[in-house]
Amino acid sequence: MASLARLPPADAKVYHDYILPSLSLLPHDSEESVRVAYALAVAHLAAAAHEHLLGMQYGSSNTTVPKLAAAGTAVETASITLPSEHSSKMLDANSRRTSRSGRMSSSDDATDQPAHGSDAGAETLTASVVQQAAALQQPLVRYDAEMAAVRGAVEKVVLELVTGTRSSADIKRGLLSHAHQLGIFFGRRDINDLLLPLLITCLNAGEWQLRGSFFGAIASVGPHTGRDSLDVFLLPCLEQALVDGETAVVSDAVRCLAAVCSYLRKRSLLAAANKVAPLLQHHSAAVRCSAVAFITAAARALPAADVYTQLSVMVAGFLQQQPLMFT
User: Across the chain, which distance is largest between two alpha carbons, in Å?
Assistant: First the structure.
């Protein structure tokens, strides 16, 4: 579906009425590889549905304007042409009155009937064209309604893959690998209400690879969540990961902090820097490099006054010499 450039408006319901329901049994498939492949493909299906609905909305708005203009021209033509025909028939009637003065009354009756008939024809045609114009004003695709339906269907799939009886660490890693696409598809409200609470459950996994994948995914989803969600949901998780037993998880968590630090409030950023600063003397080189990357990113995000009055004081005790510049 992602290879299709555009779908016709008649297929607006194809994702939530046909494609996703037809794949509803895949999260319960007996083969692990099938479930993992489905977890990898869900984000691509969601992105394709989003692009196709946007294309339908854009196409319907572009085609409606010329049709409305044509309908307006038809209304004007009907209002101009028909009265001219009516006036020509009145001229013919007047000439017949002049030549047949003895039959004035009968000629008047004869000319009145075509006049009334032409008036009725003009009103009928004008009303028909106006009805067509009013019908064209209604959008062919209701984007908000169709998008809400697709989001509901994808939400059920993600929920089943993460919390289902056949869920596994590989399935969750498959979802996390495309969390950025899912974040764009769901939008800020659904990210905070659905996606983040589901993804945070990955921190309870016993496999350190899954915990590390979580922080890699949050680095791409965090900018879409808003500052409130970063403070309420993500910072506690990141701070907990700083004391994880696996150095790879600690390194991933610090790099995640470095990726989202420009979206944090100054108070939260300085609090995180105070906890990351001791990692500059960590025994793992990967963790030390991640800590340096975070301090550099924090220095870019903070005002110069805060960098030299607060950030530099926090890291001074863990450096052999004071750097000339933090950025």
Answer: 124
